[in-house]
Amino acid sequence: MFSNQFVLVFSLLLCLPFVFFFVAPHVFPSPPPGESLIPISDEIDDRSLFIAAAGSTSLSHLSSGNPNPKLKIAFLFLTNSDLHFAPIWDRFFSGHPKSLYNVYVHGDPYANITRPGNGSVFENAFIANAKRTARASPTLISATRRLLATAFLDDPANTYFAVLSQYCIPLHSFNYVYSSLFESSTFDKSDPDPTPNPRGIRILYRSFMELISDEPRLWKRYIARGRYAMMPEVPFEKFRVGSQFFVMTRKHALLTIKDRILWRKFKLPCYRSDECYPEEHYFPTLLNMKDPDGCTGYTLTRVNWTGTVKGHPYTYKPKEVVPELIQRLRRSNHSSSYFFARKFTPGCLKPLLAIADSVIFRD
């Protein structure tokens, strides 16, 4: 009797791997295509980086009494392909001291990316801790947070953090961008006290982040992981959508680096991949919940969503690159002007360079 029971139990144990192999995929479905879970090894690496960055909160460059503090803009590029417009960005930065800016690039290590050389500002800008990224997945949140943390830790003078893609181009000169962010008394229309202080720099900084609450498909985006998956940490009335490309203050960069609670929600896999764009939800929702008054409610990167294809914005072709296009892309209902624009095909580089000095950098 005992022998028969032993044989039965042993047989069941032998069958378990086969049961798991054939049944588990139906009981525990894999994440849908386009959505990837964050490997635990990446999480561990990121946690170490974020802890180090969060511990580096010195603002001595603002409080040392220096009459001419050097405030910098950190330009953060997310890419999984070549930096097609590196030459026009090199011209954008040309002639301006490194004491005013830094450049950082998160290049997907699994992509075949040709790194610019020959003195390009991008030559040594690639960060060492980059990980694999995929569109419409939480990997883009992780990549952006890595860039923010790296820039935050690298230089305490980094005051604004501009997140861009390899398909972004500048619409103005560096001088225009820098003076607008740090010196203009009229640029940020939502600023209740835009008067510069005696040092000639702005007293109050805001993140140029969209916090959109009336997007028609907002509810479907909210429940893409499941009807109650975001609760209780993220109630629907706090959920927001916005551009994944923005200009963030140092205060908000630190807030983003320190976050753990919302990240646990936004890294969950979606069962509706067509409604799941974590990179467009996480940052607007986080700032809407933590400091909505610290945001302008608009972005400084112009995107044309007419004629969108599979979630991608309209892409400009070389024949469309004329002075009138640049003037049109600059126009904004929210600020005095847009700073950057996307999306352009790589073939647009030549006509853009042809009008760079006479139009784009002529403010």
TrEMBL record:
Membrane topology: Single-pass type II membrane protein
Membrane-spanning ranges: none
The keyword rRNA processing belongs to this UniProt entry's keyword annotation: no
Signal sequence annotation: 1-29
Keyword field: Glycoprotein, Glycosyltransferase, Membrane, Signal, Transferase
Record's keyword annotation contains Glycoprotein: yes
Name of the protein: Uncharacterized protein LOC104706497
UniProt organism field: Camelina sativa
Top-level taxonomy: Eukaryota, Viridiplantae, Streptophyta, Embryophyta, Tracheophyta
